[in-house]
Design brief:
164 residues, 4 helices, elongated
Length: 164
């Protein structure tokens, strides 16, 4: 029997060690998005605002997308050293993005159906309540973008030989 040392042919499959700050920021934004989504849908229903309902359901797609991203971050970090992932775990993040895009298409189809239905059965809209919640939703979007931008800028998982 011939014994060969394969050590010189083996290599590490750790392509990305993960982004802890990105995972943390994404998790915070996911929960804030879920809360805002519930508020927008509830006020959209009570005020008969199709725009607020549309944004609430749109926020549901964001909640799913951001939740999938947070899950993908956690799974990618957990399995970063697992040899079963021969080309790294970053593919989990990409598949999470694809799944959220498919979910968004379903939401769009439901909103188109609801909008067409509203054309044939119009209802009075309580604008004051709807506008107030829309402004809060806009503020939540800006804050979420700042949180995600900061988390991804300061620790984006890749090392280029210089500090950020």
């Amino acid at each position: 029997m011939h014994a060969t040392d394969l050590a010189r042919w083996q290599h590490d499959h750790l392509f990305d060690s993960g982004n802890e700050a990105g995972q943390r920021g994404t998790t915070v934004v996911a929960w804030v998005t879920v809360v805002m989504m519930v508020v927008e849908i509830a006020v959209g229903l009570s005020s008969n605002s199709m725009a607020l309902l549309a944004d609430g359901f749109h926020m549901s797609s964001h909640a799913v997308a951001i939740g999938l991203s947070a899950f993908a971050y956690a799974a990618a970090r957990k399995h970063a050293n697992d040899r079963c992932f021969a080309f790294g775990t970053w593919k989990m993040e990409i598949l999470g993005g694809f799944a959220s895009a498919v979910f968004l298409l379903v939401i769009v189809a439901l909103m188109v159906y609801g909008s067409i239905e509203r054309l044939f059965s119009p209802a009075p809209i309580h604008y004051r309540e709807a506008i107030l919640i829309a402004c809060v939703g806009f503020a939540v979007n800006i804050i979420s973008a700042l949180i995600l931008g900061k988390a991804h800028h300061h620790d984006h998982g890749h090392r280029h030989g210089h500090a950020h």
